[in-house]
Automatic annotation (TrEMBL):
<dbReference type="InterPro" id="IPR011008">
    <property type="entry name" value="Dimeric_a/b-barrel"/>
</dbReference>
<dbReference type="InterPro" id="IPR025444">
    <property type="entry name" value="Monooxy_af470"/>
</dbReference>
<dbReference type="GO" id="GO:0004497">
    <property type="term" value="F:monooxygenase activity"/>
</dbReference>
<dbReference type="Pfam" id="PF13826">
    <property type="entry name" value="Monooxy_af470-like"/>
</dbReference>
<keyword id="KW-0503">Monooxygenase</keyword>
<protein>
    <submittedName>
        <fullName>Heme-degrading monooxygenase HmoA</fullName>
    </submittedName>
</protein>
<keyword id="KW-0560">Oxidoreductase</keyword>
Length: 106
């Protein structure tokens, strides 16, 4: 499994951002190998972390070819003050249960 951790400092969002963001999320959900996402908001700042879960690097790369996703990446300065993307392979996960609604795979 692969995780894409999208860390961002939000700027000003307009209607075009929301339309593009919705289209990108739909494209991710339509990509074979997409498992889900989780979002966290920092309690002491406006920073946001969004973690996307993917079955494989091939699935992630397939999503990366989406035209809306490419267009949004080119226009990030219009909507974010800063961003950082980390792609990592999960070697192992373990722990206790968080409950039925906690899994990004639900």
């Amino acid at each position: 499994m692969y995780l894409v951790i999208f860390r961002l400092a939000p700027g000003e969002y307009d209607a075009e951002f929301h339309e593009l963001n919705d289209a990108i999320q739909a494209a991710a959900e339509d990509t074979e190998g997409y498992l889900g996402k989780r979002t966290w908001h920092a309690p002491d700042s406006e920073e946001v972390l969004v973690v996307y879960y993917w079955v494989s690097l091939d699935a992630l790369e397939s999503f990366g070819a989406d035209a809306d996703h490419k267009r949004a990446k080119q226009r990030w300065t219009e909507w974010y003050d800063a961003y950082e993307v980390t792609v990592t392979e999960v070697v192992e996960t373990y722990g206790s249960e968080f409950g039925d609604d906690a899994s990004p795979f639900a």
